[in-house]
Amino acid sequence: MTTVGALLCQGGRDLREAGIAESRREARLLLAGALDATIETLLRDPRADVPTEAAERFHGLLARRVAREPMARLLGHAGFWTLELEVGPQTLIPRADSETLIEALVERGLSPRRILDLGTGTGCLLLAALAEFPDAWGLGVDLVPEAAALAARNAARNGLKGRASFAVGRWAEAMSGTFDVVLSNPPYIESAVIDGLMPEVSRHEPASALDGGADGLDAYREIVAQLPRLLAPGGIAVLELGQGQGPDVAKLAEAAGLHVLGARDDLGGIARAMLLSQAQKPVGGPNDPV
């Protein structure tokens, strides 16, 4: 039998040698996951014995992390906004950068009733928006059936099952009706760049959620072309942007007859969320009837 301290030392060393930042913190997370315990419990007694089965689970997780499998994938969950979400190999892992879209939406002072999320993945954008707007109902669409099913589980996990529905489809191709808010974090990485991304992304994130075509704009072309019929009068769309893509996406939007309301930077100073509308006055503002 081995101890908490011995496993943490080994884990920190192995992760550091693999080039992983915050190796000590990640070793603690992995051991806490293997023991189904909190980090605080681990640190309370480094000399505590670790059962053999838990030590084996830790070694298995450690080997996968050394191979650069993402931490959230190993633990099976990730935090986003105020939510705790299940993650899996069929979806992108939610990132803090994407919270910029929710921040931008909340800042508009809207009161939306119908929200659409295109390429929903884990459901993170839709569910975060529903958590902020308790009178709203939302629909998430994903091309991958397993992703739509996972998003539905996340809705139930976060107490939003009755206010969210999920469907399988390519963007909004077969959809009718209009929405007050359309959200999307589409694939926007240039095809030739993907292999050079950090291993956690290039090896373990689904290519269909990353690959935006030769110029990274293929998904935007499809989505923007559909927005005029999807947006209710005064409705807005909030799209996630890749670095430097703002001007190109703005041109696509203007060519489709949409107004560019602006963009919001993420914490790194990168324009991350673009807001679009087909009306000068967004729906449901502070002075509008609900």
Automatic annotation (TrEMBL):
Catalytic activity: L-glutaminyl-[peptide chain release factor] + S-adenosyl-L-methionine = N(5)-methyl-L-glutaminyl-[peptide chain release factor] + S-adenosyl-L-homocysteine + H(+)
A GO BP annotation: methylation
Domain Release factor glutamine methyltransferase N-terminal, first and last residues per copy: 8-76
Residue ranges constituting the Methyltransferase small domain according to the UniProt record: 98-191
The keyword Ligase is annotated on this UniProt entry: no
UniProt-annotated binding residues for S-adenosyl-L-methionine: G119, T120, G121, T122, G123, D142, W171, N185
Keywords of this entry: Methyltransferase, S-adenosyl-L-methionine, Transferase
GO molecular function term, any single one: peptide chain release factor N(5)-glutamine methyltransferase activity
Pfam families given in the database record: MTS, PrmC_N
InterPro entries: DNA_methylase_N6_adenine_CS, HemK-like, N5-glutamine_MTase, PrmC_N, RF_methyltr_PrmC, SAM-dependent_MTases_sf, Small_mtfrase_dom
Enzyme Commission number: 2.1.1.297
Binding sites annotated in the UniProt record for substrate: N185, P186, P187, Y188
Domain of life: Bacteria
Family according to the record: Belongs to the protein N5-glutamine methyltransferase family. PrmC subfamily.
Function: Methylates the class 1 translation termination release factors RF1/PrfA and RF2/PrfB on the glutamine residue of the universally conserved GGQ motif.
PANTHER family referenced in this protein's UniProt entry, alphabetically: HEMK METHYLTRANSFERASE (PTHR18895), MTRF1L RELEASE FACTOR GLUTAMINE METHYLTRANSFERASE (PTHR18895:SF74)
Name of the protein in its database record: Release factor glutamine methyltransferase
Gene from which the chain derives: prmC
